[in-house]
Amino acid sequence: MSSDVSRRRVLAGGAALAGSAALIAAHEGTAAAASAQTDGRNPKVKPTIVLVHGGYADSSCWNATIKELQYKGYTAICGSNPLRGIPTDAPYIASLLDSISGPVVLVAHSMGGTVITNAAAGKANVKALVYISAFVPDVGETQGDLINKFPGSEVLPVSVPVPYTKADGTTGTDLYLSKDGQAAFAADISTTDFKVLQATQRPFDADSFTFPTTAAAWKTIPVWGLVAGQDKAIPPACERWMYQRANARKVVEVPTSSHVAMISHPRAVADLITDAAEAVS
After folding, report:
1. Do both 275 and 240 map to the same domain?
2. Per residue in 107-144, pLDDT tens?
3. What CATH number is associated with residue 265?
4. Residues 6+ apart with CB under 8 A from 94
5. Residue 209 CA from chain centroid, whole number
6. CB of 144 within 8 A of CB of 160?
């Protein structure tokens, strides 16, 4: 027998053995995966992170935080808050929650806190609520009640009222953050970044401060909270009090942060969200 023929047979035999080994390995891998599924060894399912912005902002205010979350392997979705008040905003965000399969960690900033407090009620897929310098109202309370509970808010004097016509023909009032609003709203970001934020902001209906809360999801869903230590929109004392009342599992304070902690301290915000996600996974 020639050496070439012998070589071919050896190579063919080796290939057959390698192919058989690959098939066996694949079968064993599938069996192991099936076994893991049946004996409870599944990897933890990461929840979807849903982020809700507040007034004077839009979904882009979460961009830096989203980068941190995506780096950690999380899927994040920004809910575009209509900023018309509880009767409009809460059902809108609730419909977004209904569209997501699997567990959700629901995060909100500022007025978005009022929205998620109402929207998450009765939503079995919402496993945690994370409030970032946000309102945490109880049933019957308004944002107006809460923002006046403690002194220190400076945002109303730098808000510009603009009349608009509602769908029913009545006149409403939108509030915009003025060009002079940086110190009250976002003192710890650059002037350049503030100018972009102010130019791209979404106003909120002034009536948002008057609608009473109809549900308090924090009574049944665990809470995490971040206090912005230099907040001049919602006073830090108010944030601490609301988080304590909601029996927050963890509260972190960023002493140097303005109201927009998700812009100026995205890593701290993302770390808190991750803590909540890991705790409920």
Report:
1. yes
2. 999 999 999 999 999 999 999 999 999 999 999 999 99
3. 3.40.50.1820
4. 119, 120, 123
5. 22
6. no
